[in-house]
## 1
Amino acid sequence: MVLQAQTSTYEAKTQEVARQLLVATQENRSFLGSLRDQMRWDDKLLAWAMSNPGLRVQLFRFIDTLPALHSKSEIAAHLQEYLGAESVELPSALKGMLNFAHPDSMPGQVAATTVSTAVETLAHKYISGENIKQVIKTVERLRKEKMAFTIDLLGEAVITETEAQSYLERYLELMQQLIEASKNWGVIPAIDEAEGYNIPQVQVSVKLTAFYSQFDPLDPQGSEEKVSDRIRILLRRAQELGASVHFDMEQYAYKDLTLTILQKLLLEDEFRQRTDIGVTIQAYLRDSLEDGKKLISWLQQRGYPLTVRLVKGAYWDQETIKSEQKHWPQPVYNDKAATDANFEAITQLLLENHQYVYTAIGSHNVRSQARAIAIAESLNVPRRHFEMQVLYGMGDKLAKALVNQGYRVRVYCPYGELLPGMAYLIRRLLENTANSSFLRQNLENRPIEELLAPPNVNLSEDKAQIRPEAGGFVGAADTDFAQEEHRNMLTTALAGVREQLGRVYLPLVNGEYVNTQELIDSVNPANFSEVVGQVGLISVAQAEEAMQAAKAAFPGWRQTPVHERARIVRKAADLMELRRSELAAWIVLEVGKVVKEADAEVSEAIDFCLYYAEEMERLDKGVNYDVSGETNRYIYQPRGIAVVISPWNFPLAIACGMTVAALVAGNCTLLKPAETSSVITAKFTEILVEAGIPQGVFQYLPGKGSQVGAYLVNHPDTHIIAFTGSQEVGCRIYAEAATLKPGQKHMKRVIAEMGGKNGIIVDESADLDQAVVGVVQSAFSYSGQKCSACSRVIVLEPIYDAFVQRLVAATKSLNIGAAELPSTQVGPVIDAQARDRILAYIATGKTQAQVALEMTAPTQGYYIGPVIFSEVPPDATIAQQEIFGPVLAVIRVKDFAQALAVANSTNYALTGGLYSRTPSHIQQAQTDLEVGNVYINRNITGAIVARQPFGGFKLSGVGSKAGGPDYLLQFLEPRTVTENIQRQGFAPIPGAE
């Protein structure tokens, strides 16, 4: 499989073939034809998008929204909102059309009709039909032009098991109908035969992930089982009918699992000899050449060829953005030249191994196709073993030129309704109008030498990089569980932690672990017979010893240079990264948080350490306001002793965040964790001790909140109380801290985060695929036990019923089970008290609203299945009170103004969200939604340090946002130091001699 050194031979032939093809694709149009094209609004829209980047973005956003708009007035209004912004330069024709006073006016109606018709015309250029009847008509026309086809079914994102089953059934029906139609087709030797072999006339292209709504690389076994069952049905039926099946490739995260599943399936005796099946390689991926080599080795082992479709790749923007957000190495090449070079390398690899693989070259780039032809002809590759492919509506002239030169051409034909097909249309429009697009460059009549020049890139030097964050701070990267080695690390960690279950964890007082009179069991909420650890509960007397130790340690710690304090905190971050899998395993087992979320919590804890260390170094510089003869310095000093009372729902991240903020600011810190998560905070304590925290500066004090917690809150030597928990306890702490105690010489600072009743608004322009997924994640991840969880969704009337139907189906498709299982999306609640409280709220909800869904759950553990209430009155108990469980209230509203009023009607103001594609609604939500964290068109949980500082107002809390630039100020006292530097009327004057 070593690439043969025939590059120079191939290049000469490539140039020859490419020039022939280019001439055939550049024939001149008649004057009347050119004039006619200039009159077409769909062509005008594309031309404007090519010439104006600002217009391109807004126009494509409008097109994305268009299917959700159901009246000409709505269309006209959105046209003005998207294209009427001052930042968008409009061509005069478009400017004139948008110059209407009101969307209901006649000019507004005309504008709506003109543009929507143009977009529909554009869609029909790239989508081969809206139903099977239209598709059959299209493919019959293609066959007359001696072109084969493959059909791809466009549709809504598969987010429910009902939709996954429907996807399979629609393909079975599609194949049946096409085969029935094909009985009337004659044989066209150019596409139906080669070297004596019959080639199936009917081919369909499918997406593996659409066969299972919970497809997840973290759960390879579960995903494989579900997907394989449906694929077997598809392949058996295809064989019965005489159709071929090709598997598309999707996002990078699914690539390895997709290839693994297909390779295992196609080695089964039933399918091993099948040669009418294909897989896809995307050349923009950095590891795709290696994937090609592995595929060929596997095909040698299999003994029967399959088709490999080689494409550039369609998700470049998405892959780039995701890797940047996740701090992962970028899986795709940064520039088109590198992708082109890789495409040619893989083309050569496939064709030089033609005895094992059928090659399908999917490209609209004349050079890419010519390169394949040059290699194939140089090697005398049999015609059965390679073909050319283009997308429907793109590269039409190239396809005809290839047909005319005797090559087999297959057209990839998406079909489906306009609404679900819009995402596909946007990808095609982006491709057509991109500066690097060959189609665009050809239209612009670039010199032939430029168009056909070989990509001059050294791929061995083009290494994947982690793109820097725009804001400067770079946090920890979550684990990429698409990588098998990372999954194995977690499995090993879970096994290792299980061997340590049941150990005793004692309080740390003045640098020593101390015995206690009382021990409590911390249990696995998924299996309450499993004791995670025994925790020693500190007494009030021992708490007083800890306070005195903190007082004694404070003078030395406050004098410790900031860079040294920051060094210890950064060391703790490094240790957490080293123990990432282990810490995640403890979180999974002690508080029932599923694997991905446990891993993300470790990242958040690390981020707090790194960010607060960086912030304290910034604040330590102070500010100078000097004038002649006088220096003025604004500086900060520690407050004293901080009491941190941390919750169980983020047992590592929040405990770490509040603790290291206090420590790096120079305060001695007493950590009193929630009883149900004290083992995890014991592990955090081990890390701080190993990092070098001095004796007495940090102390770990597990104990009862009503005794030890209350004692420390009321202690006269406490300066700061950092609390996260319930509103009831938070308000009590706030009141008690305000009372001056005997001997107290300062006012206590309270930082309290006290929960929320968080709502998401879904308006009539929302992308329902996106909205349903976001609401399900926000409401039911960690069983709704996040301060930021969505417990209300406020839906506008026109889409209410459709939204609820899909929401219920998507939630039904979730897997409920132990948090350690990779298939689980919904784990247990924390304990029996939480379970009983949530069940009481559910009983109340049944008297106030309709039950749209109530899922059953396992009995061995503190489980509650997700519950969805519909037609919930805005003032109902379940719409006003924080439940802290997997219970969601769906509220119907008439318009956006009412939606905002309902969203703002609770006592809380923590997080909230909006799913909308209406610019004015997005703008209004940013200003009028009364929450500390507003999320637009994404889920409302998972705030990231520095990126989304977290915290609310009203009764959601008091204090600055955690993970933000103001947070450390709460742990510091500001001081101003002024010095008169004159002596006997003399002082240095800068700049004077």
Note: The longest strand covers residues 527-537.
## 2
Amino acid sequence: MTPPDTSGLEAALRAEVDGEVRFDAGSRGAYATDGSNYRQVPLGVVVPRTVEEGARALSACARFDAPVLSRGGGTSLAGQSTNTAVVIDWSKYCTRLISVDPVRRTCVVEPGIVLDELNRQLASHKLQFGPKPSTHSHCALGGMIGNNSCGASAQAYGKTVDNVRRLEIRTYDGQRAWVGPTPPDERARIISGGGRLAEIYAGLDRIATEYLADIRRGYPKIPRRVSGYNLDSLLPENGFDVARALVGSEGTLVTVLRAELDLVPVPPYQSLLVLGYDDICAAADDVPRLLEHCSPSQLEALDDRMAQLMREEGAYLDSLDALPEGRSWLLVQYSGDTQEDVDEQAHALLRAVGRDEKESAVAFSDDPEREQKMLKAREAGLGVTARPPDDRETWEGWEDSAVPPERLGDYLRDLKHLFDEFDYDHPSLYGHFGQGCVHTRIPFDLRTADGVAHFRRFVERAADLVASYGGSLSGEHGDGQSRGELLTRMFGERLVTAFGELKALFDPRDRMNPGKIVRPNPVDGQLRLGPGWRPVTPATHFDFPEDEHSFNRAVMRCVGIGNCRSHSGGVMCPSYRATMEEEHSTRGRARLLFEMLDGHADSAIKDGWRSTAVRDALDLCLACKGCKSDCPTGVDMATLKAEFLAHHYEGRMRPAAHYALGRLPVWARLSRLAPSLVNSALHAPGLARAGKRLAGVDGARSAPVFAGKSFVQAWRAQGREQPDPADPRTVVLWPDTFTNYFHPAIAASAVRVLEDAGFRVAVPTEPVCCGLTWISTGQLPAAKKVLARTFAVLRPYLEAGTPVIGLEPSCTAVFRADAPELMPADQDVRRLAGQVRTFAEQLVHHAPGDWRPPQLARQATVQTHCHQHAVMKFDADEELMRRAHLDADVLDEGCCGLAGNFGFERGHHEVSMAVAELGVLPSVRAAAPDSLVLADGFSCRTQIEEGGTGRRALHLAEALALALDGNLPSDHPERLADRPPEPSPAARWATTASAAALGAGAAYGLGRLRRRA
């Protein structure tokens, strides 16, 4: 195939399409793969601003004979969302819910709208789109239509194909039409009208007629047949439904521009029954019996292997604790109009199968919160099994086969025998057992020729196995490249020939997502790894101990699940939520780092650590560490970014902000010479603006005000005797830079509360620092030196095992996570990682049993620092607030957007504020005037104060210390907090005038010297 003229194509797209046209290496690298084993670098990417502009992009591509791939969330697991083509990404702009008809229960949507967002907008009508795959927080409806997605709710509502009423489509050669059920008289009218549409309908009529018997005989009669084209939708008994025939065609036939969908009522009540079994095969054996006696809305399964992986990873432990006894479980959910109805459905099933709610292997719940905990364990399957703790690489490839539910147990036994035969040890088996669909990830060796050949033989044998059971190669994720080559084993030559004729009818030039389903690329071709993959193996500053000490393995944690593209909840990924750009998601950045390893001849990134494309993608990474906890496979993009920056700027000048903000502790210490003068200079008219420009700080930001006296200065002035490090009551209060120099009252408050709890407080009086600002700007050799000096100061306490109490979450997280990865062989680093505690952890877990925190009896809006969310967690803080009688609303609104130096750096202010406005700032504005606003992180407090909220956030230590003094004021209680005052206008102008006078004097002196010369 002759490659298209990409330079002319790019120019045409830029001239003709209102959208973002990207043919740069960074964009192409970010879209080079999806959630599958496959990788194909695209020709370019188009992000149309409207559906009509997307259609124009298709026209331009057709003129240049360029292949086209429509893409939504990019989560496909079979390779259908990666291709050497022009990728049209609908997910940024084409996201409208166009109309809703509550009476007919239908809606019309654009292809880029995310399922959760659609259902959120439908909530006021008490309607929803029925199918709900596990990627519901970020999968697009266009992708669901392309893949014929299902999810657990398909037990009640069917597959996507069962919920599509009409589609507006466009063929590669330009034919547009709304299609749907087409009775004979309508078909006759269309065909008689002539033209391309008539040709299509005549061709469909011919295929349906010619292959009628083959379709009726050759399509498995099972709930989860997703493989192959939906030729059965063209049968007379199915209404010759062209829309449904195109669902699941993976963008190989047409482009979907809009869709009319059927909706279902949101069930007002639900209950959940969980049954324990000895093994997963026994659970599968029981499915037909259960279905004889009930019609559940979900019937899901998970096995002991998944439970084991969760326990080893310390993930979803609450979910596991909610499960009954057993080594495998079936989760049976009921929906109905009343609580009595759904409860009775569950109890009726128990009576019918001779089981009892009181059995240890039975759990029943009609508590939505508990139900979600139990279901979360099942929904987490892909993330948990994708990167098991034993560090085996597991892959898709046979991850969603489906058989008749009544034959599921025997199929699983044969599948396990096949695993044993190929020495694929103990993959987890779970899935939608009520419809016979099985999920798994298998430890294929996709790096060596023998391993890839072994993989190929396995999937061929597995395909024959599932066909022998009358099943489907795919029960949910589609065919793509994973199963396209295997379709003949399931359908036979004649039906696969019919697939080819359907493809030729709609796309005779084979330009729509070529190489998928019809004339497919080999199942072992275009692999993301493969025997030809030869990445560089760079030496690194971080040790990456959980990734076999390998930067490459750390990058490869990302398997493309795409949770980083969610729109709400958790922390990950704030920059994506602000920009809606793939390159600004954790996944997109991981893709670019993978390409930077230059493992393939066609790698998009060829300049390694010096890559400006990778640098630019990482530039808007807030280093919030949200991905470290929220990503199902634990990608830590903050650490990867720091490593990249260290190499990218090695031996050359850095951005000014790296010197100004990355070395903040140095400048803060120097501010002690004249803090008032420093504050006046940082806020002086003209002078402050010039200083920010020189320092690389965004002009929209105000400099924080230094305290007149730091906490350590005040501590020294008190002349306290330092307690004995070996005294079990002794704790070291860590004087982090932010608390010490900007908000010293927080440390003073912490001392009061800790002493009230019976502890003796020690404070290092020599300069110490955790190195955070050096780490976040990639100045890693300097960070190691800073940490080494700190450990020398702390050594007596480290040797005595004295607890170290952190007040600033980002600094505490360094000691828990970053420092051990940066200096893994240092014993003091290991000691401190085990001795450092948050303020709340010390008080909740180590205070004397008779101590009670002061009572606040107040509502509080609480923002959790991202690093605390990711590393230390917030459980102890919530417990401490509960004991203090704080009615805490702990926000689930993501990052505050400031994120240390990020929000201060030039060019970041707009994204920083956009992130904040996604949830944190609106929530604070909505807080009652008499409530507390709590934020332990300096960044969070600064963003709240500067974000136009009219509120000032307190540290939890401050709130508790204020409570020691009695009742807080009823209105804006934070006004009691002690904060450094901003310099007066007179002081600011005086500083400007002095600077101007000095400048004029210097200029005059230089002028006289020149004249004398």
Note: The first helix runs from residue 6 to 16.
